[in-house]
Amino acid sequence: MRLVRHSPAHNFIRTVRRWPLWGLHGWLLVFVLAVPSAEFIALVASAAHMPIRGHDLLIFAVLLACNATTVELTRRSGEPIGLARDVNGVWELPLALLLPPFYALFVPIPRLALAQWRTRRTLLHRRVFSASAIGLSYGAASLAFHLLTPGVDSFAAGSQPRLLVWTVAALACALFKTIVNKLFVLTAVKATDPTTSIRASVFTRESLFGDSAELVVAVIVAHELMSSPFMALLALPFVPLLDRSLRHSQLVDASRIDGKTGLLNATAWQREARMEIARATRTQTPAAVAIADIDHFKRVNDTYGHLIGDAVLAAIASAFNALLRDYDISGRFGGEEFAFLLPHGARTPAEMAVVLLIPLIVIGKHHENIARLLRGEEYRFGKPRTDAA
Questions:
Q1: What residues form DSSP beta bridges with 342?
Q2: Which of 34, 176, 315, 376 is the least buried, fewest Cβ under 10 Å from its Cβ?
Q3: Gap between the Cα atoms of 179 and 122, Å rounded
Q4: Is-contact 269 261, C-beta < 8 A?
Q5: Dihedral, CA atoms, 177, 178, 184, 188, nearest 10 degrees?
Q6: Angle between the N-to-C axes of helices 349-365 and 306-323, in degrees from 0 to 180, rounded to the nearest 10
Q7: Could you tell me the end-to-end alpha-carbon distance of the chain, in angstroms, rounded to an integer?
Q8: What tens digit of pLDDT does each residue of 19-36 get?
Q9: Sign, CA torsion 56/57/61/62
Q10: In what order do the strands lie in the sheet with 329-334?
């Protein structure tokens, strides 16, 4: 028996091969690698043509400090898993509007590195992809803005019409940045989980309000920075308040949604069902109530464990949601019981029977998929689920 010593290069290669990144498959892996590569090329190209000015470095230093302070002030609130929302664009967008594109491309990197260290550790390739997607979106917005408004200072310091043109261009490029960033992120998300609803992720009232508020405050900060770089410090106390307003909607959702199935919890379902029944009574329109119970579900928990049981509940809830309309009200009523209220639903006993039987038929069609889940294979109804990018 002898001890085999491997060279540092050999150990490094073995470490790289174990990266979770290589668990991605097909074009998703190519996409996740291509975005950071494009970010690196853009950084090198912009650095080669960037003039170094003391005033630019001062603005960059002040906004970078505000960015890091915001991460520290909000880190106790944690970072949500999945599509995370933050308010750091208040400091990063002005860099894209006022300084050469290099600064806009670079600024997400130290911020997300600080979040990885101080807020929540996650897979490194996800942080790198997020920083690259955000950087490229800011770089594209910066390039577009400087093409639209050559001579930024003269535009902002000029007459009211010129200031109006500057403001409209700034808002348009801020919207452009948001669109580009969401295209990058949602492409990866949809490739990871095809069942993800883009409308639920992007086009909710709270999401649109949060994006609009962040962009407007960022444009105001950019305008004030042109008079003095230290004017940004006046906005610092308001940014945590904006972050709290975004998190309030997340907390409201968390209080309404059952964490295991993604359906309404019993309290929220009863409240919304009561309102819907009152509306149906007032307008004399039909409504149907359906109850589904999983027989012998305790055997699943006893045989395979509660974690697998939770996964089965989530899969069954997904099967129900595949059938229901957007305005149907579905909830987990307790344990393995599900409740549904269907506005404009069944009128006759025969139609009511159909409403009750359809979910059971769908579960029956997917019995093989549930069996795969019980064997330990990760599955969502419709298409197999891949690892997250």
A1: 288
A2: 376
A3: 25
A4: no
A5: 170
A6: 130
A7: 42
A8: 788 888 788 899 999 999
A9: negative
A10: 287-293, 337-343, 329-334
SS3 assignment for 151-219: CHHHHHCCCHHHHHHHHHHHHHHHHHHHHHHHHHHHHHHHHHCCCCCHHHHHCCHHHHHHHHHHHHHHH
87-139 residue pLDDT tens: 889 999 999 999 999 999 999 999 999 988 888 888 888 899 999 999 999 99
Question: Distance between CA atoms of 216 and 178, rounded to whole angstroms?
Answer: 13
Other C-beta atoms lying within 10 Å of the C-beta of residue 345: 20
Q: Helix, strand or coil for residue 290?
A: strand
What is the CA 16 to chain-centroid distance, rounded? Answer: 28
Q: What are phi and psi of 295, to 5 degrees?
A: -70, 145
> Is residue 315 within 8 Å of residue 385, measured between CB atoms?
no
Tell me the two tokens of residue 212: 């609009």
Question: What pLDDT band is residue 63 in, cutting at 50, 70 and 90?
Answer: very high
Q: Are 142 and 92 in contact (CB under 8 A)?
A: no
CA separation (Å) from 337 to 132, 316, 331, 345, 379? 44, 11, 9, 20, 21
* pLDDT single digits (tens) 310-356: 888 888 887 777 777 778 888 888 788 888 888 876 545 545 555 55
- Backbone phi and psi for residue 321, each to the nearest 5 degrees, phi listed first: -65, -30
CA angle 76, 78, 83 (to 5 degrees): 155
Record the pTM: 0.70
Indicate the angle between helix axes 89-98 and 160-192, nearest 10 degrees.
Answer: 120
Contacts of 272 (CB under 8 A, 6+ apart): 264, 329, 341
- Across-strand partners of 293? 337
Tokens of 276: 């819907």
266-374 is classed CATH 3.30.300.30: no
Which sequence spans correspond to the domains of the chain?
8-256, 266-374
Number of residues assigned to the chain? 389
CB 135 within 8 A of CB 106: yes
